[in-house]
Amino acid sequence: MQKKDIISLEELLNKEFNIPSYQRTYEWNKENVYTLLNDINNNFVKNEPINLGSIIIYKNEGKYDLVDGQQRLITLSLLLKFLNYNNKLKLLDNKIICASNTEQIIVNNYKAIEEFITSLTEAENLDTEKFINYLCNDVLFYLIEAKDEKETFQLFDGRNSKFKNLTPVDLLKAYHLGALPQNYPKDKKIKLLKEWDANINSEFTIDKNTNKIEYLYNNILFNIYNWSINKKIKPFTKNDIYLYKGYKSENKYSYIKYYSDSSQKYFQINKLFKAGEGFFNYTNYYIKMLDDLIKYNNLFKELDIDNIYYPNFQFINYLYYGALLTFYDKFGKNIKCFYKKFIEDFIYNYSILHRIKNKSVNFTTVNYYVLNTKYNFFFECNNALNVEELLKLEIEDKGNEPSKSEKLGEMRSKLWKKLK
């Protein structure tokens, strides 16, 4: 890694930048913009330079990939545009990574800049020419240039994991792009990214406020993992992404060799996948499976409940579709024989419905009904050898007693006797 001397904003903006595909979208809000402008103005008033931290770049086919610093540099480019900066702002001519609301975010931030500068001009008689000169020459950065693509992803992961703007799935995307081999075909990489973008820009029909990838990891897969090992669910954070980093070929542990030898045409929810392409295939695999389950197994239609919104209504979907996905992933087409029992026992006997009407379903509620019943369905399904083991379970509310699985051993014993 090469660390250069401090560089000015004007020197930076004169470079030919490319915003790489693993970057998150431009998503700063008005508060972020005001914080940045306040910091700059405070130093401008004191006539002191300001250092706005590190900018990480990587030279790639004649241009520089902007690895870290997109939010700051786009915002500062918008500021200079508003101030009628004479030189060309190359970054704004670039293809900014877009989501459905990116254009509106840029419009809102431009208005925030206009409001801020207007208020400064009225209150302090801002000398615009002097302010532009300050921005160009006294707004400074540390420039870090990565030596190769692998280091680029390591820097992106390490730097951005410290900031709340990057979500866990953003970090996973960057990590697994970095895990792709150096000779990985460009057309296949483009295909992976197009599939990712399509899922990032669409939602499941049960939640119009969260994209498919965020919903899958935040509300389904991470919940399944925790409930399957008798742990309470909690929000999915950057501290949990190690669970989905997969394995790398150079890992020589025996259990890794087992996974390495399989083609992984099919996945299992709580099992390892190969880092890199395996992660993207794993994600697509479960998005498709969840889409199918939502289409054919609508909880509220089956129970003849008015499909209206209740506060925290989404937690019932997390529980319901998480259980269906766990079952379907393991036993496949057998889901039809399980579905009726699931509706009757898992939903009614968990007494969820009165909670819907009372408008009080949350993390505590669903954790209680999964872990404080006689049999934790997720644990049992994770360990069951066949569907019959699950069909024989009686799911009943046991108050504050801990989860138990003593009946599983008894059923297993009978099964082994039959097999012999």
Features:
420 residues; alpha/beta; five-stranded mixed beta sheet
Summarize the structure.
The protein is α/β, with parallel strands linked by helices and 420 residues long. The protein has helices at 9-13, 30-45, 70-82, 90-93, 102-124, 128-138, 149-160, 168-178, 186-200, 212-228, 254-260, 277-296, 299-302, 314-331, 335-348, 352-358, 363-371, 377-383, 387-391, 406-419, and strands spanning 2-8, 17-18, 50-60, 63-68, 139-145.
Spatial arrangement of strands, main beta sheet: 1-5-3-4-2
Question: Helix count?
Answer: 20
Estimate what percentage of residues fall within beta strands.
5-15%
What is the rounded Rg? Answer: 26 Å
- Profile the largest sheet: 5 strands, mixed
Principal-axis shape equals: elongated
N-end to C-end Cα span: 62 Å
Elements, N to C (H/E): EHEHEEHHHHEHHHHHHHHHHHHHH
Helix/strand-derived class?
Answer: alpha/beta
- pLDDT under 50 segments (min length 5)? 160-164, 304-311, 396-406
Approximate helicity band = 55-70%
Q: What's the overall average pLDDT, rounded?
A: 77
| Total number of distinct structural domains | 2
Number of strands: 5
